[in-house]
Design goal:
This protein is mostly helical and 166 residues long. The chain is 58% helix and 0% strand. It has a single domain, classed as Hypothetical protein af1432.
Length: 166
């Protein structure tokens, strides 16, 4: 999905392929989150949520500084995929274009994937409800330009989601 969104934004095939390879590493920092938090059914309490939020910095720290472009892409993605367009995300609370474009791209794909697939803490959402949420959060949680691309490429996104659904 991130590849499709990068291509829709006008990035080169080479760039989009790097995004495709790096994007699955976005949550690698979760290996440092205790299982009782990671696999908890239901809502996390404030302490558990604080622990969960550390996964972005842990992932970034694991991936940064190698001097390899794919790893650099993955580091930016790990760090910024929970930032929000309006500045209310984490870990840095940056907003708008101060969020690396890689994080902005993967944020859309990650949230969509999380919504439409079952997780230990929630049931899968109906496709229409998930799409409606992404549209509603355009300009708040998500970069509006990327949401526009998501809508333009929705058929491709849905094909990918169907092929790789949990």
């Amino acid at each position: 999905m991130s590849y499709v969104l990068a291509k829709d934004l006008g990035y080169s095939e080479e760039f989009a392929l790097r995004v495709k390879i790096a994007a699955p590493l976005h949550d690698i920092g979760k290996i440092g989150v205790p299982d009782h938090v990671l696999n908890k059914p239901g809502k996390l309490n404030s302490n558990e949520w604080s622990i969960m939020m550390t996964h972005v910095d842990m992932g970034h720290d694991m991936l940064k500084g190698s001097g390899r472009e794919i790893m650099d892409f993955a580091a930016y993605i790990a760090r910024d995929h929970h930032e929000k367009w309006d500045g209310t995300g984490y870990p840095r609370g940056v907003k708008g274009e101060n969020i690396h474009v890689l994080g902005r791209i993967v944020a859309v794909a990650d949230v969509f994937d999380a919504l439409v697939n079952k997780r230990c803490y929630k049931k899968a959402w109906a496709m229409d409800d998930a799409i409606a949420l992404l549209k509603k959060e355009s300009g708040f949680h998500f970069d509006p330009t990327i949401i526009q691309g998501f809508i333009r490429r929705l058929d491709d996104i849905l094909d990918i989601q169907k092929q790789y659904s949990d």
